[in-house]
Amino acid sequence: MSPHYLIRPNEVPPNIFSYRRYWAHRFGTAAVLPMSRAEMTALGWDSCDIILVTGDAYVDHPSFGMALIGRLLEAQGFRVGIIAQPDWHSVQSFQHLGRPNLFFGVTAGNMDSMVNHYTADKKIRHNDAYTPGGEAGKRPDRAVLVYSQRCREAYKDVPIVLGGIEASLRRISHYDYWSDKVRRSLILDAKADLLIYGNAERAVVALAHRLARGETIEQIHDLRGTAFVCQVPLPDHVVLDATHWQHRILRTRDLAVLKLPSFEQVSQDPVLYAHASRWLHLESNPYNARALLQVHGQQAVWVTPPPFPLSTEEMDGVYELPYSRRPHPSYAPRIIPAHDMIKHSITIVRGCFGGCTFCSLTEHEGRIIQNRSPNSVLQEMAVIRDNGPDFTGVISDLGGPTANMYQLRCVSPTIQAACRRLSCLHPMICHRLITDHRPLLQLYRQARAVPGVKKVLIASGLRYDLAVRYPDYIRELVSEHVGGYLKVAPEHCEETVLATMMKPGIAVYEQFETLFYRFAQQAKKEYYLIPYFIAAHPGTTDDDMLKLALWLKQHHFRLEQVQTFLPSPLALATTMYHTGKNPLHPVSRDSETVAVAKGARVRRLHKAFLRYHDPENWPLLREALRRMGRPDLIGNRKHQLVPSFQPSSVKINQVGNRQR
To answer: Which of 441, 458, 501, 563: CA 20 to 30 A from 242?
Structure first.
């Protein structure tokens, strides 16, 4: 058995700041990582060790992936250059910093490039929050694929390493909503040497040091959180075949490699696709996950187990690196909207154990919560206060993927290491989950006491099913940390739909709503909840959307911004959308199926139910209500959903579009 493929489950990873620094650390710390030869020369560099290519504008802030990875590699002693939003039509844009000594790191940026470009209705977006001035069109579709091809043209012998959300969600064969087909693993189409998925710190630091010591990238196949290509026939491993519905689980998990159905099989058979999706998600706990293998023709993609989470000490170190917290000076005076929104926010956690099936957080950041220390958070607040020229005293957010999962964890590391649940919160909150919100409340109180800070807002998504367990948390949130309104996401009101989402029942939301308004009244503040709902999610029928519309009307909600389900690669809900099967349970030919809202008309109808109050939607809704046998809901009485008349000022055609 090749040692280059073997990963032991109980290994103890080195601290990412424990490596001996590379010799180039003698050049010191850059004010900003260079984007031009002139900046390299000013730093005394003749070359870059690593060049990061990104679809985002370069903002030297830890909320931007290329800045975080770039500063982390700089702290290891490497010279890191940035090629941000290059002209992908020409290879010259990929050569202007010269040949990197170690590798190109390629990412689409903080967003998947297809999600960045297109709405859920596949319409082109007209702005890009990660570009100066919000200008659209500064990155290509499938940016990682295009950038990788240009890097290979620029310097064909330089290793190419893929990373970021776009690469994470395409590490194996995946359904692509925009082309409506199953595509191969991105590493094959990009012809890259390595793909790093999830939180990349451990893998990218180890990779850089090993390449610097003289190892070739073909030798480095034992890093957690990576995928690479190997040839068929495969190395001599113990391989478990997941093509069959049942297979034997070996006790020696470190020797087991789970062979998923091949690309050819999943692209032709939706049931096998759903089966592969289920196993991918079951193998997501870094403490018990096995390597995955998926054959693509005469090649195979090998996916190593997920990376171990960062310790609090490591999290602190990553976020305390010397970021300028500003866009690169070359962009001035243009504003980058994404930076403008988060420049005074602070990340306190990573990861989410909610497991919502429509969300990509779990596939990317994992379920284990990684926390920063209170001291580190308070230090960052002081940096913002002292160095932010436009800081007005308001911290816009203390959060992360979820606002109130700070320091929440399993009661036992041993139990956590063995757990294979897809969610700690569904179908009910695990009794082994520590849900104590007191450490978070203590952090809030310390943050409010920082001199020069007038207000600390909480803007990250809130898990209200956790919050209702601690009314004191809701009371303090409302009295101290809400800026007029609070966004929450009940998503739907029907239990069957919520089950496919792995979200709590609507009664829990109503309990939270009652507490929220009670505490707002006690604080003598006029605050509002802004609920988010999803239309056309897998498992949703026309009748389910009608019931949601009636619930919204009963509760006097008139939604302005509504969300239609967008199938992102690898998400469990995307598997439901593509296959009609439910991968939350064992999959077979005869296993549970789910309703799927496909086609522009039905998706438009489901969205119209969320905006039942909009006259533009009334003709479409009236037609649907008659078809559903509910003409009793057409009329002008209080209990009825839509009026029987159409305002003369709004003329609608038969498919519900405004006529010009």
So the answer is: 501
